[in-house]
Each structure stands twice: as structure tokens, then as C-alpha cells.
């Protein structure tokens, strides 16, 4: 694994109750993975958790902020939001938010798999 910084290590400790995790360096930040699925993002010293149409309202209601990527054309809101401020440094308060993010990542993977066309079986000529 690539060398991590102290914030990444601290975040992995906070999230250890989620289960076995991996952090992978990416584009100047870090992806946080559970069971091979990215559910968290660390950018600019801030943790963001994956949201979808099911969980985004919860994050919005809790006053969380989206990760916004500045492109040449315009800022783009990504599918990752900060956890609530009161959960940012508390492993027990963060756990339900992290579980929502893992669930969102799992739903996204199922949705992606459903969209993939199935390979056609080749029939050998007799």
C-alpha cells in the first residue's frame, strides 16, 4: 500500500468498526474502500462519505456539505458528502454515517452490474 498520511491513518482508525478497510492514493487524495468498494474519499484533509438518492437527504438534513470538484468548465458536485460535524471525530457517532456510505456503494455496484450487458454464449459448430 502507498504511504499514508496521519489524517488517513486517523480516519481509518475512526472507521475500523465498519470492517476491514483499505486506503488508496488517488488524484491528490485518498479513496477509502470496504470489500473492494469505495465508500469514502479524503481530499484536502476532509473525509467525505458516499451518498445516493436513498442517503443524500439524511446528509442534507444533518447539515453536511458535498465534495465539489472544480473543472475547467464549472464546479461539479460529486456523490460524496462530509459527515455531520458532531460525528467527524467520534467513531461511534461516525459509524452509522459510514454504514450508510457502504450501503450506497453496494447499491451503486449492484446498479452498475445490472446495466452491464451479458456476454452471449458461443455455440460451437458441430
UniProtKB/TrEMBL annotation:
Q: Which Pfam families match?
A: TfoX_N
Concerning SUPFAM superfamilies, the annotation shows: YgaC/TfoX-N like (SSF159894)
Task: Please indicate which superkingdom the organism of origin belongs to.
Answer: Bacteria
Q: Which InterPro entries match?
A: TfoX-like, TfoX_N
- What residue stretches are annotated with the TfoX N-terminal domain? 13-105
Name the UniProt record assigns to this protein: Competence protein TfoX
Question: Which species?
Answer: Corallococcus macrosporus DSM 14697
Amino acid at each position: 500500500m502507498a504511504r499514508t498520511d496521519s489524517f488517513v491513518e486517523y480516519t481509518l482508525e475512526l472507521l475500523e468498526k465498519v470492517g476491514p478497510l483499505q486506503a488508496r492514493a488517488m488524484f491528490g487524495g485518498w479513496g477509502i474502500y470496504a470489500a473492494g468498494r469505495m465508500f469514502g474519499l479524503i481530499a484536502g484533509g476532509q473525509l467525505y462519505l458516499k451518498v445516493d438518492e436513498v442517503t443524500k437527504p439524511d446528509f442534507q438534513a444533518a447539515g453536511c456539505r458535498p465534495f465539489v470538484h472544480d473543472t475547467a468548465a464549472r464546479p461539479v458536485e460529486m456523490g460524496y458528502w462530509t459527515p455531520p460535524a458532531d460525528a467527524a471525530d467520534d467513531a461511534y457517532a461516525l459509524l452509522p454515517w459510514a454504514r450508510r456510505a457502504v450501503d450506497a456503494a453496494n447499491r451503486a455496484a449492484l446498479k452498475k452490474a445490472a446495466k452491464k450487458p451479458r456476454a452471449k454464449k458461443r455455440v460451437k459448430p458441430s
